[in-house]
């Protein structure tokens, strides 16, 4: 009876017993499931954390962080820097935000505008404006890129500009953001005619440095074999090419990579006023990536004003008419009030003062030559 009863109990209590056990097992499963999820989440999270930088750079790093910007100046031209700081670099008053912008110079002037730049690269290049010096600075620009990308190549682009240029950063970024930096890109404003050098059958084009130039990551990698401080300055002198022309020779001729011409958006100080600035509409202004300034045309002191017009346009797109009037007034002002250049010189660079003073009675032609020493003019003469 007992056995029966016991068996009975066992038999009939089974379902209840199983029921409890099932419940326990179910709970265990749920707990294990939850633990697994949380563990997996933690794992995925730490995986993402660990690979954050590479994920980030691949898919979501803003183009600004992937673009290295170098602005070349000389200690002779310190007075130009304040215009950069009150225009396109103004939004970077907070030095923290100048992370990707580097000023490259030959000498640091203490207690000057230099102090307002977060990043200054010093070169040991001679402080003149001849081919050797300019090519030395160019080699330094590349060396700097290779230095900063040695351990972690976060920069897909390297763009270099001069100190007498306005740069519309938003336009630069939106333009580059559309391009694939794993394609060799050499982007710039081309000289009007292709150049030739002695002993070379084919002519080549080059991007004038006065208009701003961008190189993609893959092209920079290729250029590493060709551009360095020990060889490039001497090669420039040997070939008789200025730094920008030498880059064109290396890229178009040696590397067989064609220049991507962006003449309608990149502007240099060497353009003819009548076919360039004087014809720019408000739309042209807003679409441009760079403007070149020079003492005898759109002066550097106009840079902050032009910058303000561009900023206003961003905030007030429906006020186009007022902006157009403002821009046209500024644009036409120069035409209606041509400068009397007699006995004047570019006073934004002290080196030009000396040269003009050195000439006993400088004729207008001499003064014009003095101010146009920037390289493109020299090389243009070489056109065959
Ligand atoms: C730095 O410049 C300021 C204003 O330009 C001047 O008052 C100050 O004496 C200068 N300091 C040095 C160390 O030259
Ligand atoms: C690149 O790094 C080397 C070695 O640290 C240094 O000597 C050189 O000055 C750097 N060049 C530039 C342009 O930053
Ligand atoms: C510089 O470039 C030249 C020409 O490509 C090469 O022969 C030389 O080894 C390079 N020098 C250095 C220090 O990289
Ligand atoms: C240069 O590139 C073009 C097109 O990209 C190609 O057709 C040509 O064969 C190349 N020339 C040499 C010498 O590699
Ligand atoms: C230009 O300026 C010079 C000296 O400043 C003066 O002698 C000359 O008359 C001026 N020419 C014109 C056309 O105003």
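Q: What amino acid sequence fits the structure above?
A:
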């Amino acid at each position: 009876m007992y056995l029966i009863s016991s068996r009975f109990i066992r038999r009939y209590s089974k379902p209840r017993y199983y029921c409890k056990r099932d419940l326990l097992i179910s709970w265990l499963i749920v707990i294990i499931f939850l633990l697994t999820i949380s563990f997996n989440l933690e794992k995925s999270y730490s995986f993402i954390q660990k690979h954050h930088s590479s994920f980030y750079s691949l898919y979501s790093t803003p183009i600004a962080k992937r673009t290295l910007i170098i602005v070349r100046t000389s200690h002779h031209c310190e007075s130009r820097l304040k215009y950069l700081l009150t225009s396109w670099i103004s939004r970077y008053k907070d030095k923290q935000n100048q992370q990707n912008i580097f000023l490259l110079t030959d000498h640091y002037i203490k207690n000057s505008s230099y102090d307002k730049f977060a990043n200054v690269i010093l070169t040991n290049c001679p402080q003149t404006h001849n081919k050797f010096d300019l090519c030395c600075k160019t080699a330094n620009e590349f060396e700097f890129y290779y230095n900063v990308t040695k351990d972690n190549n976060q920069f897909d682009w390297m763009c270099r500009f001069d100190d007498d240029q306005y740069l519309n950063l938003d336009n630069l970024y939106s333009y580059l953001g559309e391009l694939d930096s794993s394609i060799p890109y050499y982007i710039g404003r081309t000289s009007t005619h292709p150049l030739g050098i002695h002993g070379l059958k084919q002519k080549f084009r080059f991007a004038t440095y006065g208009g701003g130039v961008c190189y993609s990551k893959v092209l920079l990698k290729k250029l590493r074999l060709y551009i360095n401080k020990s060889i490039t300055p001497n090669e420039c002198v040997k070939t008789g090419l200025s730094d920008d022309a030498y880059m064109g020779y290396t890229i178009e001729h040696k590397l067989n990579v064609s220049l991507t011409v962006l003449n309608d958006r990149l502007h240099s100080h060497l353009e003819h006023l009548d076919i360039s600035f004087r014809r720019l509409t408000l739309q042209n202004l807003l679409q441009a990536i760079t403007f070149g300034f020079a003492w005898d045309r759109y002066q550097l002191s106009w840079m902050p004003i032009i910058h303000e017009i561009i900023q206003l346009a961003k905030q007030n797109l429906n006020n186009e008419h007022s902006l157009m009037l403002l821009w046209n007034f500024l644009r036409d002002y120069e035409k209606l009030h041509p400068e009397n250049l007699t006995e004047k010189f570019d006073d934004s660079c002290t080196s030009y003062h000396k040269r003009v003073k050195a000439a006993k009675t400088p004729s207008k032609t001499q003064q014009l030559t003095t101010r146009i020493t920037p390289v493109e003019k020299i090389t243009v003469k070489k056109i065959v």
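Q: And what stands out in the fold?
A: Residues 111 surround 2-acetamido-2-deoxy-beta-D-glucopyranose (ligand 1) (CB under 6 Å).
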